Amino acid sequence: MELGSKIRETREQKGITLRKLAKDIGVSPSFISQVEQSKAQPSVDSLTQIARTLGVSSSYLLGEEDTGIALLKSAGGVVKNRFDPEKLASVKLKRLLPENINNNIEPALLVLEPGTGSAEITGPSSGEEFLLLLDGQLDIKVNENTYTIPNGQTFYFPANSVYSFQNSGSEAAKVLWIKA
Fold first, then answer.
1. I need a labelling partner for 115 at 20 to 30 A (CA). Which of 14, 28, 135, 180 fits?
2. Residue 57: inside a domain, yes or no?
3. Model confidence pLDDT, tens digit, residues 114-149
4. Integer Cα distance of 59 and 66 in angstroms
5. Which helix (H) or strand (E) holds 34?
6. Which keywords does this chain's UniProt record carry (predicted)?
7. In Å, how far from its chain's centre is CA 70?
8. Helices 44-54 & 18-25, crossing angle to 10 degrees?
9. Is 113 helix (H, G, I), strand (E, B) or coil?
10. Count of domains in the chain?
């Protein structure tokens, strides 16, 4: 399949209008139309922006084998660092996005050995916290209430809460934690 046809097919599958795609990447709708009709070729930068907006890789649009790996490029070099290492001294923390990505979320994988946990954390004035317990068990205290989260369960709370958490189980707890 040609590049233009692949872009059009992907755009239509995602329910994105030609005008919206053009607006999101800062080009004219007629340019996108010409690319989709194979009357024009996008620059590498435009192709990258088209792919990012459509949620696919450039390789996918070019018909190459898609490895599932996408290069993330910082738009503004903002460092979020919403996970405070001082409050998580006994917790292994692996950030899942580069710190310099200008994004609205900060996902991380947390691993807590039995008996380990966080200090009390006072969240920012706005935002949300979402976690998915991948393995083990986690006790989390949010404001004055304590919740036990079993393996495979999700938990959500407003980021402006005062909270702490601990692995009270007998095996390591693995948590996908997303701050937004």
1. 180
2. yes
3. 999 999 998 887 788 999 999 999 999 999 999 999
4. 6
5. helix 29-36
6. DNA-binding
7. 12
8. 120
9. coil
10. 2
